[in-house]
Backbone:
């Protein structure tokens, strides 16, 4: 009995077959207990996953592609030709590297799908990386670039002509100038586009408004302006609204809101009106924009990493089932 038990133990790590043991009948077949089969299968699957190229071709390379594409769109979309060139290169490399090779007739379909996974993962990395990067650029980095590369003006009066500050990135208004929260309009177009005139308390203030504080979904139809740092006594800074992008194009709606406000409150919109976000500290806003853009890229990379890990696990499970 002791030798028989030893033979059973040794056989658990081998496929089910007849055991040539002098102490057991020749017709005896040894199988694995249910628990041993599950543990053996899991161990075999993990070994197949780690020893194959799946981890490299379906996880590491696509994740690197995602990061490169996302970073190019986030920080270099100011020069569109560079991100577009990176996209075309990655798409071509993914197609060439993901072409299915030869497979036996019995496994052709499944093998082709598994071999195409690197190509699919690479294309997904390009598409999702571009979307993630564009969002990060338009929502945050465009603000950073507008402030960083635009001119900085200080002690600007609300009565100044807007054309004199057409290249402004950030504006520090005089202490006598501020947001007129009694002349607010919220223009509805799926979202609420809020505007309020920036006026000066001096006698030189006229009906013509050169500067407008703006925001999205931060006011009522005719009041309750809570955009940016409006309402803070020490706030006198303005960050120019960046140019329209692919996903977000608010300028037309801000202009419509300003025209509506002019009609409601008997004002005149300057032909070169400057739209700004009212802030207390322009330097902090610039750093916050950069940090938020980096955070979007990091979050996108983490989510994409989970996606390709799922792809790799499914592929490893499929291969393990074929070789079992």
Residues:
């Amino acid at each position: 009995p002791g030798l028989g038990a030893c033979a059973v133990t040794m056989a658990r790590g081998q496929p089910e077959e007849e055991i040539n043991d002098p102490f057991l009948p020749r017709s005896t077949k040894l199988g694995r207990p249910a628990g041993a089969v599950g543990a053996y299968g899991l161990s075999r699957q993990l070994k197949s996953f780690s020893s194959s190229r799946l981890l490299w071709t379906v996880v590491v390379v696509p994740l690197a592609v995602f990061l490169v594409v996302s970073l190019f769109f986030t920080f270099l979309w100011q020069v569109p030709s560079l991100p577009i060139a990176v996209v075309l290169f990655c798409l071509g490399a993914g197609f060439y590297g993901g072409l299915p090779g030869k497979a036996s007739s019995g496994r052709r379909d499944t093998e082709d799908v598994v071999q195409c996974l690197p190509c699919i993962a690479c294309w997904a990395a390009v598409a999702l990386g571009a979307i993630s990067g564009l969002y990060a650029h338009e929502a945050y980095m465009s603000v950073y670039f507008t402030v960083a590369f635009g001119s900085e003006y200080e002690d600007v009066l609300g009565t100044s002509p807007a054309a004199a500050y057409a290249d402004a990135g950030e504006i520090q208004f005089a202490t006598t100038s501020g947001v007129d929260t009694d002349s607010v309009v919220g223009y509805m177009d799926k979202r609420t586009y809020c505007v309020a005139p920036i006026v000066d308390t001096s006698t030189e203030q006229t009906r013509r408004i050169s500067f407008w504080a703006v925001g999205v979904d931060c006011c009522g139809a005719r009041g309750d302006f809570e955009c940016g740092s409006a309402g803070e006594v020490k706030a006198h800074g303005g960050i120019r609204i960046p140019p329209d992008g692919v996903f977000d194009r608010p300028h037309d709606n801000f202009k419509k809101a300003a025209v509506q406000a002019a009609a409601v409150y008997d004002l005149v919109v300057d032909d070169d009106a400057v739209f700004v976000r009212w802030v207390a500290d322009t330097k902090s806003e610039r750093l916050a924009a950069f940090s938020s853009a980096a955070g979007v890229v990091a979050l996108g990379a983490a989510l994409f990493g989970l996606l390709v890990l799922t792809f790799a696990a499914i592929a490893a499970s499929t291969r393990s089932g074929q070789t079992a």
Summary: The first strand starts at residue 151 and ends at 156. Residues 1-19, 26-32, 34-39, 99-108 have pLDDT under 50 and may be disordered. The longest helix spans residues 108-149.
